[in-house]
Each structure stands twice: as structure tokens, then as C-alpha cells.
Amino acid sequence: MRRGGPLLSSLPSRSPRASCSRREFMPFATIAELSKYDGQTLTLRGWLYNRRSSGKIQFLQVRDGSGIVQAVLVLKEVGEEMFRRVEAIPQESSITVTGSVRADARSPGGYELGASDVQLVAAAQPYPIALQAHGVGFLMEQRHLWLRSRKPHATLRVRAEVVRAVRDFLDGRGFVLVDAPILTPAACEGTTTLFGLDYFDEGKAFLSQSGQLYMEAGAMAFGKVYCFGPTFRAEKSKTRRHLTEFWMVEPEIAYGTLDDVMSLAEEFISFIVQRVLERRKEELKILERDTKPLEKIQPPFPKLSYDDAVKILNETRAAQNPPIPPFGGGDFGAPDETTLSLRHEKPVMVHRYPISVKAFYMKRDPAAPDKALCVDVLAPEGVGEIIGGGQREDDLALLEGRIAEHQLPKEAFEWYLDLRRYGSVPHAGFGLGIERTVAWICGTEHVRECIPFPRMMYRIYP
RNA sequence: UGCGGGGUCAUCUCAACCGGUAGGAUGCCUGAUUGUUAAUCAGGUCGUGCGGGUUCGAGUCCCGCCCCCGCAGCCA
User: Fold this and answer.
1) For residues A426 and A110, which has the higher predicted lDDT (pLDDT)?
2) Nucleotide nearest to A132 (CA to C1')
3) Is the pLDDT of residue A26 over 70?
4) Most buried by CB count within 10 Å: which residue of A175, A281, A342, A374?
5) In A155-273, at which residue ranges do the beta strands (DSSP E only) sit?
6) Tell me, in Å, how far CA of A128 is from C1' of B57?
């Protein structure tokens, strides 16, 4: 590391020395840990978020990524030259601020910095994002800058906490991370549209739409596994629940049954929600999220068979004015899912859908051969399905039949069939969509705000 | 892909009545202000998506295109 420059001569931020008055010994600290340094003098490195000026006193809102703090600059304390110089610094310029930390009830956040020195690192050009009144279209064009604003910042911190909770939960329960490939030779399920690309002399390759089949191989090797990564769907969906690139975590358990993964799913979701409530209170407050509904998210969740769900939907439809015709079978539409989820405070688990609407690898229910041993978890408050999963077909002959029925190229699935040829066992798993989970927890209308750089049908910039 | 709703300054869930000088707010610039909380106050700056058509005259009416938003299907 080089020496000399004020930015590079940092001491470890954890060992502030308040008694030092010479600048080269000033410690750097982050705003998040400011309250630990009450009464001490230190230097913050960040950006000018906003300024309110009153002629002889300036209030600088300084952000450094960990938080926002107000620095107070008084004319008679810092002198005319510095005061005027700081007054000319544009919004979002990078700056360092040296000053003493003090508690002050008048300051947003409770603490403020009595500034003794402000250094400009790089002046910003006129910043496109004002502190209020912008449309989502404009903000998405500026997504790379919008990340600095309060709401996206809070949402993405919740996302990071969700991801950490996902890993902590699964790692803590003996699941082994076995990442699935993103470049795949063929469709996993054959239904959804895939993004294709040329793969050298091997012909077409595709971006993965699910790591599940690979997780089944992983489960036969490690017992309990999961993968966590991006997933790609080339569907032309333009709704607030869809992205063309989204993140999914997919646990898979050897010797696991539908009941096992249903229990796992409700504990998993509860763990994630409680973890966010515990560690990201400030962020949920910034997002104005009512946390009361989230506090109730604890096992057990309400469970509903597909047949019972159909009865409820038909009752609801008949009660409408004018009545809507009864449900015709098949998969539920988005309004149906909303009807079901609005009946409960917790996520609702709908199990045993007709085998005809589910993927080829789903296992039939021995008690009802037209039903699959599968489960969808519908989040409350209208976010829709956050989990889809179930028990996999473990019988070689039945699976071969399903592949034929779905008119899938058998050669592509030989490796997958091998898992049934060499010591097949019952196994089950599910996929949890990260952005929908974050949208639900944050109370965000659209999933596009729950990923740093959303990819949608009509947006691939920035 | 289908259906619906929209494109007015750099920005805005904004205004412009029957076709007649495009108005406001925010930002930005200048000035004032010693405790601001999206600070406030005064002044200034900036605009009708593209291509045709009707008309004395088009933001407004007609035709085509482009773009955006929402919903649906599909899914997480």
C-alpha cells in the first residue's frame, strides 16, 4: 500500500485515538458505528447526499454506504474560505469530513459531526436524481446511481440479509453447497422458453432455468444439498412479479418426502423473515413496512390440498356479482393465487396439484394417481408464489414414461436417468425465489426493485 | 403474444376548457438567512416522442411508426 495521501494513510477504524489532534493520526470510521465514538474526533469518507444552508451555518448530509449522518459546519468556526468552498460542493461529490462526534436530538439519527474540515475528493457533475419526485422509468435508467438513494439502499440491504439467512439456515442444517451449472445442454423442464447461445462445436447451449436436476445428482452424492444462483427465463412476461434473470435457492434432500420439504419450507421462510426483522429494523422502517404481519410468520403454515383450494375458489367465484364460472381445472392463475393467499396471514401451502400441469419429474401421489406430490407456497399480501417444489419421481420406468409423454429428448436425460439406475431413493426439494421473497418482506410493489440491476423483457440497461 | 392506459422542460401519479401567446412544482444558476430536517424566501433558466395529413393556425383532430406502464398467459 502506498503512503502519504490522506485517503490511503488510514489507521484501522476500530482503534480511534481521540486525543490525537494531528490530521495524520485521525482514524477513519463508518457512519454505522459512529455512536461508539461519541465525543471523539474522526474522519468520514463518503459523498455529499444533501446540503441545507443557512448563510452562516451549513448542514451537510453525508453518506458513506453504511448510513447517513449530518455534519454541521459553522462559519465562525471554520472560517470564510472553507465555508464558501464547501458551499460550492455539488450534491453527490465525494468528500472527506473531519469533526467531533456528538449526540444531538435535533440531528436526524441522533448523532452529528461538528465539522472542522471538509475535503473535496472529486466534484460531481449536476446529479440527475433529485431527492424527490421521480418516476420508476427514469430511475431505472439511472439504476447505477439510484442505488445510492435511501429506498433502494434499504431494499438491497434487506436482500443481502435474506441471502445471508438462506445460507446460514441451510449451512447450519448440514446442507452442502453444490452449485449447479449456468450453461446447460438442454431444457430442464421443456416448458419455459430458454435463452440460447452457440457453444463452440457442441451446438446450442442454454442459460439455466433451474439447478434442480443437478441438485438431484448432488443429493445422491452428499445427502442434503443446495444451490444458489441466477436463473434465466426468456418468457415474455411483463408483470410486477417477473424478471428474466432472477436468483433462486434450491435445496434437495435424499430420502426426503413431500412432507419433509413442506416442513423444511415453512421453517426456512420463518427463519428468513425473523432474521430480517431482527437485523434489518432500520431498513424496514425506511421502507415504511408494517412489521406486524411479518412477526406472525412462524410454523406451522396453513396447508391446503389442490382439491380443497378449487372448492374455495369456486365458492368465491359463485359469490361474485356477477358470478364467475367455476374453475375448470388445471393450474391456478394469478388472481386465484391472490384469492387463496388473502385468506391467510401466513404463507399458504397448496399441495398435490394435478400431475398434468406439473413438470415431468414430479412423483405421482400413490393415494391419488392423477395428483403430484408437489407443493407451491403462496406469499401473503399478493406477491404470489415464492416456492415451488415437491417429491421427485424415483422409479426408472415411470420417469422414462414421463419423458416420453412430455416429448423430451431422452438422450439429454441419460445422466439424470442414471440417478435412478444406480441406487435410486425417494427424494424431494424446492426452489425459493429471492426477489419475490424480498418484495414480500419489504412490501415492495415490483420485484425489479429487489435486485440491484433488473433484467426484464424491455430493460437490459444499465 | 393479446387486452388496456400513456408519451408536454433535466425531473413530476402535474396543468393547458370548443383547435388560437404552453402554466405550475422540483432540480439547476444568482442573492438573502446561525439549527436546517425533501429547510425557507426572492429573481432567473429550460419543453410538446418520430413521420405524414387536415387547417389561416395543431400539445389538442386524422393515419402510420417508435417508446413506456399495467394486466393476462407462463412461472419463482
Assistant:
1) A426
2) B38
3) no
4) A374
5) 176-177, 183-184, 196-198, 204-207, 224-232, 245-254
6) 37
Q: At what angle do helices A150-172 and A434-442 cross, to 10 degrees?
A: 120
pLDDT digits (tens, 9 = 90+) for A1-11: 333 333 333 33
Task: Round to whole Å and give the CA distance between A222 and A254.
Answer: 8
Nearest to A153 by CA among A165, A164, A141, A145: A145
For A277-301, b/e burial (b = at least 16 CB within 10 A) is beebeebbebbebeeeebeebeeeb
C-alpha distances out from residue A22 to A3, A73, A75, A98, Å: 16, 20, 22, 11
Cβ neighbours for A164, distance < 8 A, ≥ 6 positions apart:
A275
Q: Which nucleotides of B are covered by protein (CB under 7 A)?
A: 1-2, 10-13, 25-29, 32-40, 67-76
Q: How far apart are the first and last CA of chain A?
A: 33
Q: Can you give the distance from the CA of residue A124 to the C1' of nucleotide B39 in angstroms? A: 22
Average pLDDT over residues A49-65: 91
Q: Is A350 helix (H, G, I), strand (E, B) or coil?
A: strand
Q: According to the model, what pLDDT value does residue A19 have?
A: 41
Give the cell for residue A248. Answer: 433462486
Q: pLDDT value at position A411?
A: 86
Q: What is the pLDDT of residues A347-380, one digit of tens each?
A: 999 999 999 888 899 999 999 999 999 999 999 8
How far: A248 CA to B12 C1' (Å)?
Answer: 36
A139 CA – B57 C1', rounded, Å: 38
* Residue A376 Ramachandran class (φ > 0 left, ψ -120 to 50 alpha, else beta): beta
Residue A219, classified by CB atoms within 10 Å of its CB into exposed (0-12), middle (13-18) or buried (19+), is buried
Please, which residues bridge with residue A68 across strands? Answer: A63
- Under DSSP, the state recorded for A182 is S
Angle between helices A212-222 and A414-421 (to 10 degrees): 30
Query: How many Å apart are CA A41 and CA A44, to the nearest integer?
Result: 10
Q: Which of A99, A30, A98 is nearest to A66 (CA)?
A: A30
